[in-house]
Amino acid sequence: MEFITSEVKIALIESCVMSAAGVSVLLQQNRRPRYQVFTFTTPAEFLAAQEAESFSAVIFSLPGTREHRRECLTFFGEMVKSHPKVKRLVMANNEAEARLINQLSLTSFHGVLDKSVPLNSFAENIFAALGDNPKNSEGANKANPVKAAPRLLSPTERTILRYLTDGYSISQIASQLERNIKTIRAHKFNAMLKLGVNTDAGLLNAADMLLHRATPF
Question: For the HTH luxR-type domain, which residue ranges apply (predicted)?
Fold first, then answer.
């Protein structure tokens, strides 16, 4: 765990030590307010420390794996219930991953940040997300451009994903939902567009994450 003397306590969950150090240095560049950064490699480490410390925000940096996306969604699902006033930020590896997290989460974030953007843009985004603006304010939308114009999955699209994860074929899903096959294929295609995936494997990965969230869809 890393400790930096400052005023506002921020928790950073990051499995890569070098990346954590870089983000910590970046946060120290802001002087109003100044940030005291605690870095943790797992949510479990953070939760243990939270018993003794009070954090203003928690940032979850995604390593890019399906398992960690699941962990992130479950973790923030619990955080919004146990500590609703703590700001919640996610650092995604690219825009596609940011879109995926936005679409699959049942909870709101104060920012879903794309780590692939230029450093000056990333810095502007993270400081805006840590500000006092609510999620749908101008500041929050600047910090989270993917969230500014969301394309949410419809109930039918979510149901189709659930059936796909359970091993149903398109024709079987059509039978279950009493729809024709072309309609089911159209819903599947729309879900792929919204999630930013272009293969059946990618779609199944997304459906798998939906099934492992703290709250069922």
Answer: 146-211
34 lies in the same domain as 79: yes
User: Vertex 96, ends 90 and 97: CA angle to 5°?
Assistant: 35
Q: Do 56 and 87 belong to one domain?
A: yes
Taking only the tens place, the pLDDT of each residue in 169-217 is 999 999 999 999 999 999 999 988 887 788 888 888 777 776 655 444 4
**Residues ≥6 apart with Cβ < 8 Å to 119:** 26
Q: Are 77 and 30 in contact (CB under 8 A)?
A: no
Rounded-to-integer distance, Cα 204 and Cα 217, Å: 15
Q: Return the pLDDT at 100.
A: 78
Q: How far apart are CA 71 and CA 126, in angstroms?
A: 21
The residue segments making up the domain with residue 172 are: 155-211
**pLDDT confidence of residue 210:** 66
CA atoms within 13 A on the CB side of 40: 18
pLDDT on residue 148: 39
What pLDDT is stored for residue 88 in this prediction? 93
Return d(Cα 91, Cα 165) in angstroms, integer.
27
Domain boundary among 126, 148, 170: 148
Same domain? For 201 and 171 the reply is: yes
